[in-house]
Amino acid sequence: AVVSTQSTGEAIVNTIIAVIEANPTSQDSGLFHLCEFIEDCEHGVLATKILHLLGREGPKTAAPSKFIRYIYNRVILENPTVRAAAVASLAKFGAVCMDLRPAILVLLRRCVYDTHDEVGADK
Fold first, then answer.
1. Are the beta carbons of 53 and 34 closer than 8 angstroms?
2. Residue 123: per-residue pLDDT
3. Positive or negative CA dihedral for 36, 63, 49, 108?
4. Residue 33, exposed/middle/buried by CB under 10 A (0-12, 13-18, 19+)?
5. Counting Cβ atoms within 10 Å, is residue 68 exposed (0-12), middle (13-18) or buried (19+)?
6. In the chain, what percentage of residues exceed pLDDT 90?
7. How far is Cα 43 from Cα 82, in angstroms, rounded to an integer?
8. Strand (E) positions, 19-119?
9. Taking the CA of residue 1 as centre, how many other CA atoms within 13 Å lie in the half-sphere pointing to its CB?
10. Quick one: which of 27, 62, 82, 103 has the fewest CB in 10 Å?
11. Please, what is the average pLDDT of the chain?
């Protein structure tokens, strides 16, 4: 379902983050719910907040690879600001998860050709 108001979405995101912080065993599940949330999120500020959290916490999870598709979808489908946050998140996964680094590098190389300054290389 599409979250229609930013305040409702913010309340949902903050609640999930509070649960993750209060109960670390819920981190994987909470991060996955946030991934699902950004699939339908119409608010760039919330998507950016979630992407930064995923970049910080996702690489530390038991199965970090399961978050990559959700993050890369934001590179493909969102506005330049959200895409830039997604690129930063992917880079964090590549820096921490050695086994994912080759695949992450392929995805990041694709981003270099993005025509928006926030995302790709300066043209």
1. yes
2. 42
3. negative
4. middle
5. buried
6. 71
7. 10
8. none
9. 6
10. 62
11. 88
